[in-house]
Each structure stands twice: as C-alpha cells, then as structure tokens.
C-alpha cells in the first residue's frame, strides 16, 4: 500500500492517536500469515479509519474521492462487528476518534454534529476503561501505560477544542482525572495538550452564562465560583495570551522556537509592532521540512481559534454596547482581540495555499 503524498505530514503529525508501530502490527496481522496473530475487528476499524483520512488528504486523488468514504464505512462496519456499543477497547476508542476527525473534515453541512457525537462516544469508551486515571498505580507495563496516556490525551484535547468551539460541555471535568502526559511526548503535542487545558478552564463558564440567560433568576441566588465576570475572563485569557513583555503567564509566548509560525507573528501588531522583532522571534518558513511547517501553522491556528472562541461572547457585547465604535466599549479589548486573530487566520490561510502549491487548503489541514 503506497503512502498518499503529504498525508503522513497532515494527519499523523497533528493527531497521533495511533503510532506507526501499532499500525504496522495491525497491517502485518491483516496481510501476513493468517495462522499467526489474529486481528480484532476494532483494530481493523483503526486501519480503515487511517486509510479514510489518508485517501481524503491524498493529492493524487480527485477531491471527495469516493474511496475515502468507502474506507470510513468499512471502519463503521468493523466497529459494529466488534460490538463496540457494549465492548470497550483501546482500538475502538482510537477508531472512533479518527472517524470523528474524518467526519469533521468531510461534513458537507460543516456543522460538526456527526463528529461531536463520535468524539463523545470515544471519550465515554475511554472512561469505561479508566483511561482518565493514570495506570502507573496499577503497575501496567510501560508500553501499555504510554499508549493509554497517548490515547487519552488525544481524545481529551480534541473534545475540549470542539467543546470550546461549539460552546458545549466536555464529557468529564478535569477534577476527575489524573492521567499524566506521555513521557515520550513531542514538543508539538505537549503544546497542543497544554493549550487544550485553557479551553477546559473556560467551557463550563460559557455554559453557565448561557444557562443563566434562560433560567429563572431564583435558580441563581447562589452562583458557583465558575460564574465569570469580564475582568475574570481577561485574567483567564492571560494563561494563553499576554502582551506584556517577559510575561510568564502567556502560554503562547512559551511556544518552542522551532514551532513558532512567522506568518502569524507578522500579523500580530499588538504583540510585535516591530516586524523585525517578529522575524527575530520566529524561524523562517522551511518548505523542505513540511511536517514542521504544518505543525507551526496548525498550532498558530489553534491559538487564534481558541482566543476567538474565548472572546466571542464579549466581542458581541462590545458591538451591542457601542455600535459606533466597539473599541470604546467596556469590552473593547475582546473586540480588538477577535478582529486581530481573525486577521491572523486570514493571512495564514492565504499563505498556506501558496505553501501547498497545487493543493486544496481545506484538504491540506487548514483549521
């Protein structure tokens, strides 16, 4: 089976819920000696889900090639054969997560509801197996322990990013989990997992504010600590983004140098008013190292999207309170943040299309 052009850089580097070694084992078990190790239906579902994503990103195939959907349907059939609704497995959790990413990338309506349901099932299956509790106290083998951690944090981060985007509650609160990050984690995945926790701090508050707008005032006589004022929301955003020089709070400023996106930084006058300063603080785009370049763009887009989602409620309030000049509203900072981060996203997607010459932006991993 030949590798689709650019597919490994696109999908594997961003969502490495199944390792290449594990996938190789499934391939060998599937196409190797039949009398050898058997392959479970859930493992076959993982293989078909990976093939679906690969076919979708394969630039040698026409857009929306039917083979991608055929692979995804095969993954669904394997899950049903393996009775995934009543039988939990690590492979089943991986397959559901991969299928959710595929559905989000190919959903015609772009509403993401199908992917959201799959992520929820993947998370619940993981909870049923105790993935939210670190397996070190159970004396699990190191290989099993690391795989469980990797699967959990990939599922957790994907669900949190989408929960923030859709203003929906995640499947489990952070207070109920203690799973550690994998010890072999890459800087890219560490930053991605850390960034997802910023969303976790915010989603319950967004849900509470939405509930407060429709429920009886008597229900809110004793509001929980998570009710958030505008000043409190600004302090939470400092965990991710802080314009003050040498701030230790800003996660964005702690991005490893090799993963910083110069295109994004050149589009942030609030942080880098001097373009030369932005260039000094970021590496040049390297078209020969496609994986690193795509990781740079992906993380920068995740940061921009997270900030837009965190500020969007107050962005709307800024417009509502001062339609003539929202920047003079009490919520003006949120208005400016959303406008600037939307500009960053537009510049990045425009350059991304040039970078991936001949490729379709949406198919090549744009968020």
Word description of this protein:
The protein folds into 2 domains: 197 residues, no CATH class; 101 residues, no CATH class. It is globular, with a radius of gyration of 22 Å. The protein has 367 residues and is an all-alpha fold. The N terminus and C terminus are likely disordered. The chain is built from 13 helices and no strands. The longest helix is centred in the last third of the chain and has 32 residues.
- Order of helical and strand elements: HHHHHHHHHHHHH
What's the count of strands?
0
Shape, per Cα inertia axes: globular
Q: How many domains, in number, for the residues? A: 2
Percentage of residues assigned to helices: 55-70%
How can the largest sheet be summarized? none
Features:
367 residues; mainly alpha; 13 helices; 57% helix; globular; disordered N terminus; disordered C terminus
What is the element layout, followed by pairings?
Blueprint: H1 7-12, H2 20-31, H3 41-57, H4 66-81, H5 90-106, H6 113-128, H7 142-166, H8 187-212, H9 230-237, H10 262-265, H11 275-280, H12 290-321, H13 332-355
Helix pairs in contact: 2-3, 3-4, 3-5, 5-6, 5-7, 6-7, 7-8, 8-12, 12-13
Short description:
With 367 residues, this protein is mainly alpha-helical.
